[in-house]
Amino acid sequence: MAKIGVFICHCGENIASKVDCTKLAAAIGEHPGVAVSVEYKYFCSEPGQESVKKAIRDNNLTGVIIAACSPRMHEATFRKVCAEAGLNPYLCEIANIREQCSWVHTDKEMATEKAMDITRSMIEKVKRNNKLQPIEVPVTRRALVIGGGIAGIQAALDIANAGQEVVLVEREPSLGGHMSQLSETFPTLDCSQCIMTPRMVEAAQHPKIRLLTYAEVEHVDGFIGNFKVKIRMKSRYVDINTCTGCGDCMTKCPVKKISSEFDCGLGKRTAIYTPFAQSVPNIPVIDKASCIYFKNGKCKTCMKSCQINAINFDLQDEFIDLDVGAIVVATGFQVQNTAGYGEYGYGKYPDVITGLQFERLATASGPTSGKILRPSDGKEPETVVFIQCAGSRDPSKGVHYCSKICCMYTAKHAMLYAHKVHHGKTHIFYMDIRAGGKGYDEFTRRAIEEDDASYVRGRVSKVWLENGKLMVRGVDTLLGRPVTIAADMVVLATAMVPQPNAKEFAKTIGIAYDEYGYYNEAHLKLRPVESSTAGVFLAGACQSPKDIPDSVAQASASASKVLALFSKEKLEREPVVATTNEATCAGCWGCVLACPYNAIEQKDILDRSGRIIKRVASVNPGLCQGCGTCVTFCRSNSIDLAGFTDKQIFAEVMAL
Amino acid sequence: MSELFEPKIIAFVCTYCTYAGADLAGTSRLKYAPNVRIIRLPCTGRISPMFILKALQKGADGVLVSGCHPGDCHFTHGNYHARRRWMVFRSLLDFMGIQPERVIFSWISAAEGGKFADLINTVTEDIRKLGPFDQYKELIRETEAPATL
Predict the structure, then answer these.
(1) Which of A60, A312, A470, B19 has its CA 20 to 30 A from that of A207?
(2) What range defines the domain where residue A300 resides?
(3) Number of folded domains in chain B?
(4) Nearest CA in chain B to A576
(5) Mean pLDDT across chain A, nearest whole number?
(6) How far is it, in rounded angstroms, from Cα A639 to Cα A641?
């Protein structure tokens, strides 16, 4: 027999002024199953809480209703009170008679009547509540970091330095990402390689970090604390354990004219190659598409040149299965394809280049050894035009957002050029200068005041070739007239866009993405580093355009989230999860389709001899988030949601 | 009807958006008609058409279903399921001879306290105009004692 205690709070005058609490308590006291019905000024106060505890103990209550403010305010408070008095906390419900009654109605009589309905409805619900226990999920204390750029490296190092195991996976043959391609970095102009390569080496040599380069995440299963990951180790055709990185194979390789991806097409590489000289690990891979041996079965020059027999053309892709507890996604960005910019002549004129290509020209380890030279004739350009927002903030090109880094790197390019070509002249077409950040505005001022960059506010309509010069036609909106500049080189600040396979990859890991393919955070302001999937965190430009300081900050934030997760052996979760009735489940799998979290699996029911009798749906309580969509979907009424069962809800409706 | 008819409206709302929106209407001290009774659920995806039928059968003159805006569902797409289900259920209501206008579907976010208050007032007025929903009530009265659990 139910013995429900109902505690009606006045909330000072907040409730009592509009709801006749005495009348309410008397009426509720008559309701079947109610053992205690009392009112008090503030039940959330210390004496209020104590009186609830005492009533639970004295009357052996089987359920508690607090008729007071919203459950969003004090549900947790009163569930704790119940637990302290020895009552299962999930046998406590809140009747919201403040936010949804006394505060919104003026007629006292009607408000009192409504409060009665609300309270009765909750009484009928709580009679059918079950004693739930928090769900405990074990945690595998090993993190997977996907992406070996600055964000991934930072996250991996932070987690590893705190003593936890990390598996760092990089798709390319070397760590480094985009940052290793850069020349100098704003706003300090320190050399990117100088600050990046030590971190790469540190990550590779860290005893807690297992580095998997030239590897891709193929499949992710499981849930927070318990992910199962399959990783494809792409075959390098070079034995990573034997190779010493001497580089003989690369010198001997007869295929030397392959456009280097790392140099953005401005340099050449061989068929067996490392992306750049400071690669980590410094172990080459064979580019199967360009290798003569893979094309016609002859050559093997590299194999012959290798003194330690590290090259093996028969090596195959391998798969590694890993158990990890948390995942940090740091897959980065790509530079937008400029094929849609016919008017700027990219692809048509070799001296129209992207910002990233300019970085390669400016860097000491680049194809020109740091000299700014025109790709067409190798001459030093005397006038360079930079076009900002070439793609960004341009709805017609499908990119509505600001890429955030272009204003800064264009100012940097103008400076680097001025430092290298003293008689050179730079013109920068811009829409707005967005230099928010520590030392950023000072930096762009320096480009203008000290390095004589000439900023022209306006867009460029066309670039064409005339008498060996690139004619840049634009508008100066401050002067209100068109301008034409004869340039030797044009640099497009192309937009930052998500990786080409970003959306498919999001589906592999099971996280949400926006219209562009950037990964969605759980809350833009308050949970900016968590993805929509518990246990998966975001770092760097895979979430939105970011510069290096922002990427590093977010990576460290992700690492701290991972470490917080790893601080306990077990996770505790609210037990509001779905459960299936295996006896009645017909195995139609409607629930599997309905579940947004892939939390429902097929389970075999076996007889004694191990034969499958039937297959039923089974909910993984670690993955289930408790939305209840499956419950409504189920045609045979075989799923119910703890805390919101059909019985409870029907009882609520029936009491109204 | 000499006296003004006071309709009874049962609202099934999700806890993350509309329930929070209703709370906001309260904390903002907005005033709205006292005819609505709210039932809190984790997500609109949890709302079974059976709940709505039961509410109508039990004496509700109107039913309101409200959740997060499309794309904003806390559970990623429970509200889309609810919307699809509603499209089918609506035609079923029509088929059964229940005015589909008695069941209102809406999106209200946690920030839309004002919208919640306005909606309740509009829905109350609309249902008041439709009059009491008694086509089944009388049948139930005549054939059996009021349904109890």
Answers:
(1) A312
(2) 248-305
(3) 1
(4) B42
(5) 94
(6) 7
